[in-house]
Design goal:
heterodimer, A: about 525 residues, mainly alpha, globular, disordered N terminus, B: alpha/beta, 3-stranded antiparallel beta sheet, 8 helices, 9 strands
């Protein structure tokens, strides 16, 4: 190593030369090999396509009715756009491997050149994915012999492709700029609220819907299928111009992402891929969340510990909940909102099911300490005295109690407002009773950890009946489905059939809660 | 295409002013000033969690500073495209070697020479010097921890640099390899390269380091000539002397 050599300013090779060298060291697969996946997808579509098309067009046609597209389309487009843009906060379009960050980003190579190809590839993938989504949507929109004029169909496809490209370009900006990252993070929940408002406004009147359709790219993108004949081309032009501008900015700023941000994403991707190989969904999520986890988002909380050993786990859970106020807030909002949806729509089983699912998700948000125990079962043996099963069961207490309190508050609020449904007392009492087993369902699901169990995997792999995939999906959704079923039964049955079955339902819910609590503390199948 | 680098005499190899780095409410590094000229070696010493690695990563562009500024050979390593020139002047050996799973030891060196635009005719000699010749065709997964560490070291030494930064370089190295590393660092100093290293093994830095900075909880607790700082650190009981 010599300083003189450094001062002599050695000629730096281009990124193209590095890639050429790499192709020599690791020759890329042949053209035939590269087209193998395309061939398999093509042949599968040719064989199964007509069957799936028939089934999907019928199902999609029911969902994507013109009215539903007009009411929900802009909101869904906005949420999809937000999700794409926020993808830049955890990964983004330009992600290198860890050694690439060290060796290539550590070399005096122009970052703009290094980032150009991955960015272009991601923009293309975004466009292709959006084209598939647009195709599926068109199948539904044109279903039931409604049809879509060719011009409008092409316009809609182009608009959704533009939206996909816009999302990827936005993700690139989020990836490169901490300032834009922070701004979009802060805007996330307000944007979700705006999406809900868009649905409400769209469904209120035709003139209000026009406002929504011109309110931004999410509205412009939907116009080709529901907008006025004269106006949708203008919306398409606006969307194209806006997308082109954002893409141009993303391309110009592609080399500005700091090494620190590249390294965080590279390490997260490496961890997520390793977790995927072991089929551990939780660790995939944890790896990716590590990128956007802000230092200081978890606070230490000074909460006086209890004197009774039996309350140690509840104290630990309370510390965890208070230390992550955002998570606590989400849990409260979901439990309260879910309960309100159930009470105010008691005669609509689908809405009640949605409300029960929200309560389940709310309880699940508070079960992070339980999941943490299943991640590292040995810690329980080292730090705690009680056996694993009992520790797990105790971890369910705080989420169940909070869910119960939120449901009680929702019931009190609705009762004070005089908005209880028919047989309101019975509905409210059963919902309160159901809230506990719903939270326990979330605990039972969390107790299994993020990894598909070996027994399920081996059973699914050796199954000859062709239902291996169904078994895996059933294993994943069994507890959320049970929670939804319990919540729906508890609310919809008395709302529809009166108070006749209330005692039986109440007893069934109490027994379910008891059985679940026993299941949680079942040592034989405890994690670790 | 070439990277413009100033003459050695004109610019400091490293000029860090008021560099700070926080992780939320944890202040890992507070206002570190460090100027280094070619041919000198500075050791950052301190206990675990004192901020040594944060200091190194922030000064080499791996971490963004919360405050302060850094110049490597006159260029800011945090701002593109200026950072390109800073990277041309910087060779970094991280605490854990960051190697490709699918490249052999030799291919790593070939890639580095190619990426830095330097001739690859020194690869064989360097592999021989580091005792890696017999492992030149091996993948990282086939190497011991120490061999991987040496490969990372070779990647840093194969190219010219104004500033050589080593984060805990002796971790994983056996005593003969540590002795060889000391020799290499002394040679690099003689050749005019500025060497910045972090360590909590004081004996390793003896005879290599000219100056030292003692960090504690991210703050500079002591700084000065190596021998003096070492002596005061030992008196305070801050660091065990592992002679």
């Amino acid at each position: 190593m010599s300083t003189d050599a450094a001062a002599a300013a050695p000629p730096v090779r281009s990124v193209g030369e590095i890639r050429a060298w790499w192709r020599v060291v690791h020759p890329p697969p042949s053209l035939g090999k590269r087209f193998e996946p395309v061939y398999f997808v093509g042949i599968t579509l040719a064989i199964l396509g007509p069957f799936f098309y028939g089934a999907a067009s019928s199902a999609l046609a029911d969902v994507a009715a013109p009215r539903a597209v007009a009411d929900w389309g802009p909101a869904l487009a906005l949420v999809a756009l937000l999700a794409l843009v926020r993808w830049g906060a955890v990964q983004g379009p330009v992600v290198f491997s860890v050694p690439d960050v060290a060796q290539l980003l550590g070399a005096p190579l122009p970052r703009t050149d290094l980032a150009l190809r991955p960015l272009a590839r991601s923009l293309l993938i975004g466009a292709a994915g959006a084209a598939v989504a647009a195709g599926l949507a068109l199948v539904g929109i044109a279903g039931h012999h409604r049809g879509v004029p060719v011009g409008r169909g092409i316009g809609f496809g182009a608009a959704i492709v533009g939206l996909g490209v816009l999302g990827v370009a936005g993700a690139s900006l989020v990836q490169c700029s901490p300032r834009i990252d922070r701004a979009t993070r802060i805007a996330t929940w307000p944007v979700v609220a705006i999406a809900i408002a868009l649905v409400v406004i769209s469904s209120s009147s035709d003139s209000a819907r026009k406002v929504v359709l011109w309110s931004g790219p999410w509205g412009w993108a939907i116009q080709p299928v529901i907008g006025a004949q004269d106006h949708w081309p203008l919306a398409l032009v606006l969307l194209a111009a806006f997308t082109a501008a954002v893409v141009a900015i993303a391309i110009r700023r592609r080399g500005t992402c700091s090494t620190e941000r590249h390294m965080l994403r590279a390490q997260a991707r490496s961890g997520a891929i390793a977790s995927l190989y072991s089929m551990n969904a939780r660790f995939v999520g944890r790896s990716l969340a590590g990128v956007s986890r802000r230092a200081g988002s978890t606070r230490g909380v000074a909460l006086r510990p209890p004197r009774r050993p039996g309350l140690a786990i509840a104290w630990r859970d309370a510390v965890a909940a208070l230390g992550t106020p955002q998570r606590l807030g989400e849990a409260v909002v979901l439990a309260l909102g879910g309960s309100l949806v159930c009470l105010l729509n008691a005669d609509h089983p689908a809405a009640v099911a949605g409300g029960a699912l929200a309560i389940y998700v709310g309880a699940s948000r508070l079960l992070e300490p339980l999941r943490s125990e299943t991640d590292t079962p040995d810690r329980v043996r080292v730090l705690l005295r009680e056996p694993m099963g009992r520790v797990i069961a105790r971890h369910a207490a705080v989420p169940a109690a909070l869910t119960l309190v939120c449901t009680l508050i929702a019931v009190a609020g609705v009762a004070i407002a005089g908005a209880l449904p028919d047989h309101g007392g019975a509905v409210a009492a059963l919902l309160v009773l159901a809230s506990v087993p719903i939270a326990l369902c979330a605990a039972l699901s969390s107790r299994r950890g993020g990894q598909l169990s070996d027994s399920v995997m081996s059973f699914a792999a050796t199954d000859q009946s062709g239902f291996g995939g169904v078994i895996i999906i059933a294993w994943i959704i069994v507890f959320p489905a049970l929670a939804v079923a319990l919540g729906t039964l508890a609310v919809a049955v008395p709302a529809a059939h009166g108070t006749k079955a209330v005692p039986q339902l109440a007893i069934a819910l109490v027994i379910a809660a008891y059985a679940m609590e026993r299941g949680l503390r079942w040592e034989r199948f405890a994690p670790g | 295409m070439s990277v413009r680098l100033p003459r050695v005499a004109e610019e400091l190899a490293l000029d860090a002013r008021g560099v700070a780095r926080s992780y939320g409410r944890l202040v890992a590094l507070r206002s570190l000033d460090l100027k280094m000229r070619g041919g000198e070696c500075v050791a950052l010493i301190g206990a675990n969690g004192s901020g040594k690695s944060t200091a190194v990563k922030t000064m080499t562009g791996l971490l963004e500073p919360s405050d302060g500024s850094v110049r490597i050979a006159g260029f800011d390593p945090h701002t593109e495209p200026e950072a390109e020139a800073a990277r041309a002047a910087l060779a970094l050996v991280p605490d854990a070697p960051l190697l490709y799973d699918d490249l052999t030891v030799r291919q790593h060196l070939e890639l580095v020479t190619l990426a830095h635009g330097v001739p690859d005719d020194g690869i064989d000699a360097l592999l021989d010097r580091l005792g890696l010749t017999a492992r030149a065709g091996f993948l990282p997964a086939e190497l011991s921890r120490g061999m991987r560490q040496k490969t990372g070291l070779a990647c840093a030494l194969i190219r010219p640099a104004r500033l050589l930064v080593l984060d805990e370089p002796v971790v994983g190295l056996d005593p003969p390899s540590q002795a060889l590393l000391r020799e290499l660092l002394i040679e690099a100093k003689r050749a005019g390269t500025a060497v910045l290293l972090t360590t909590h093994q004081m004996a390793f830095a003896d005879g290599v380091a000219d100056r030292a900075i003692l960090l504690d909880e991210g703050e500079v607790l002591d700084r000065g000539p190596w021998g003096e700082v070492r002596g005061r650190a030992a008196q305070r009981g801050w660091l065990p002397d592992e002679h």
